[in-house]
Amino acid sequence: MKIDGGCHCGYVTFEAEADPETTTLCNCTDCQAMSGAPLRAVIITRPGTFVLLSGKPTEYRKTADSGNVRPQGFCPQCGTALYSTSVGDAPKAYNVRVGSLRQRNELVPRRQ
To answer: What sign does the CA torsion over 35, 90, 77, 1 have?
Structure first.
């Protein structure tokens, strides 16, 4: 399905394609700390389909216990968390924060 959304202030907007079956709730301690909530809801985009329509997110590079580096994108003006992704030049999948999407009410979590 086509998804689109952006940050709270409207500076960053984007679109992508994603399978609703990938809608996931995560309650790991990193997601709790970074969202300020007991869980975070994400949907995984199809690789290479995430497109910025406006603005430029700031990225914080989080290093996991495994050593994997995951850039975390957020709006530099209002702080809205938007996504996480991988490093490198290959077509990337993005874990888009469901709360930043216009289609949020259509996306029922399928995994936790």
So the answer is: negative
47-72 pLDDT, tens digit each: 999 999 999 999 999 998 888 899 99
Contacts of 15 (CB under 8 A, 6+ apart): 2, 3, 4, 50, 51, 53
Relative to beta strand 40-44, strand 51-54 is unpaired
**Could you tell me which residues are beta bridge partners of residue 61?**
71
Under 8 Å between Cβ of 101 and 107:
yes
Using a cut of 0.85, tell me whether the model's pTM lies above it. yes
Number of residues assigned to the chain: 112
Residues in contact with 8: Cβ distance below 8 Å, sequence separation at least 6, in sequence order = 75, 78, 80
